[in-house]
Amino acid sequence: MNTWIFAGCMSCLTAVMCCAAAHAEWVNVTSSVGGEKWGYAGVCLVVAVPDSPAIIAGISEAGLWRSDDQGKSWRKLGTEDKEQIRSRPHQIVFDPKDCSRFWISGCYGASPFVTADAGKTFHRLGNLSHMDGIGIDFTDPQRKTLVVGLHEQARSAHKSTDGGVTWQKIGDSLPADSNHSTDPIVIDSKTFLINTAGWAQQKSLGTYRTEDGGATWAKVSDLGCAGRALLGSDGAIYWGICWGNGIVKSADKGRTWQKLPGPAKLSPIQLEPGKVAALGGQQIYVSSDGGQNWDKLADPIPFKPNGIAYNVKSKSLYTWRSTEKQVPDAIVRCDLP
Questions:
Q1: N- to C-terminal Cα distance for the chain?
Q2: CA triplet 337, 101, 30: central angle to 5 degrees?
Q3: CB atoms within 10 A of CB 91
């Protein structure tokens, strides 16, 4: 295992998440993740397993890998499955009532999949493929309503009302000139949000909301968001604007939005109740007041990151970079006091 240190950093997490002088270091924890061969884009995501010190990494064309020792070693999940996960993983969503159950979406391959046994086995849902985001209606104990958005495709939202067995396209009711609709947010069985953002030229950017299950959509913002949104413990939604142009927030379930001030630009996550962190270039920033003010958290990351994750149990920050070829330094960890 490669355990050399990238760089030193001064962690600044205190009772107000600033001004601490405790020392911490960014440590390379890529190790054996992904096995001997990665696909294009390499490490696509890292997530913390709720109520556990474990983390899961999604590797392009190599499936999901779990570490129970803060990245010192990794083991592949779903190794005995007849149909392996071969996509570029995009999102993992844990069931808030049972973290052994989670859904995984990805592009350039079959998707989505679900596990009910913490990743020992996975089951493919329906016959869709090549998708980005996935949202689940957690107001329903049976988790019947799911919404997904296909990768780099306009008006591509699909809905399932039977837990993913069958799918119905609901993106056709979005405007004809809308951009890529890739990352849905599910509020309840009838209320969804979807972005329209991407590289498609002469296509409109925006955020749309439906209260009738996707039969009709109303535009609620001219800003085109993209990527995984944060549904905070305070009930607010935090979402990064496409191309790293900032973060927007909604405090009313997506009816209205405000662009947050400050240096934080993408990948909003929650550290703990009342504490939101996000990326600004190679720096992590943290806010204790709902995104109105931001302080630096740790020293700059040793590479340009694609995202961040935080494990509450181990108090560890993780960040990763996606690369064209396999590299020995794609995931790093910084332990907070």
A1: 25
A2: 45
A3: 24
Distance, CA of 11 to CA of 17 (rounded, Å): 9
- What is the fold of 229-300? Thrombin, subunit H (2.40.10)
Please check whether residue 145 is in contact with residue 93, taking contact to mean a CB–CB distance below 8 angstroms: no
pLDDT > 80? residue 287? yes
- Above 60 in pLDDT, residue 1? no
DSSP letters spanning 209-257: EESSTTSS-EEEESS-B-SPPEE-TTS-EEEEBGGG--EEEESSTTSS-
- 173 by DSSP, 3-state: which? helix
> Would strands 98-107 and 88-95 be described as parallel, antiparallel, or unpaired?
antiparallel
What's residue 337's pLDDT?
87
pTM: 0.92
Q: What is the DSSP string of 131-149?
A: EEEEEE-TTSTT---EEEE
Residues with Cβ within 8 Å of 177's Cβ and at least 6 positions away in sequence, in order, are: 202, 203, 204
- Cα distance between residue 111 and residue 63, in whole Å: 12
Closest CA to 67 of 83, 85, 52, 78: 52
State the Cα angle at 301 between 300 and 307, rounded to 5°: 125
- CA distances 310 to 4, 47, 230, 315, Å, are 21, 8, 13, 7
